[in-house]
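Hi C.,

You asked whether I'd gotten around to modeling the 151-residue construct. I have! Everything is below, sequence then structure, no commentary in between.
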Amino acid sequence: MDTPLYEEKQSFFLRPLFVLIIFAILLWGAWDVHETPLHSVMLIGMAFLSALIFWGFSELRSKVTATEFIFGFPFYKKRIPLDQLTVGGVQRISFGAGVGIHFWRGSWLYCARFGRGVEISVDDTKYLIGSDHPEMLQAALLQRASPRATR
C-alpha cells in the first residue's frame, strides 16, 4: 500500500439532515393503520435502504499516491495509474450539475457538493473530480503524473 501524497474527503455538509428527512418521510407511511403489516415492513426497509444509499454517496474520497489516483464514493472507487492520466484545469461545478456520479457536459462528474473540481482525462474519457482544495489536488497530480500531464 502506497503512502498518500494527497488525501481528501469531500462531504455533503447537510448529509445527516437529509438522511433524517428521507428516513422520516418513508417511515411516516409505515404507521398508516389502514395498511397491512407487510406494507409497513416494506416502507421501513425502504427507509433504511434509502438512508444507507444516500449516506454512501455523500462523501467523495480522493487520494494521490506515488503510482495512482484513487477517487470515488465508499461504495464505488476508481483507480487510475498516474502515467495514464492528463491533468486539466480547475473547473467550477455549478448547482445545476448536481452531486453524485453522472455524465455532465462531456465529462464524468464525481462530486459530493457544489464548488470546484479538477478536470482529468484518461484516453478519450474526461472526469471532473469535486474537491474542497482543487489547487492542492491538481498540484499533487501534476507532481506525479507523466510529462504529458498538462494541457
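If it helps when you're writing up: The CA atoms of residues 30 and 38 lie 9 Å apart.

Thanks,
B.
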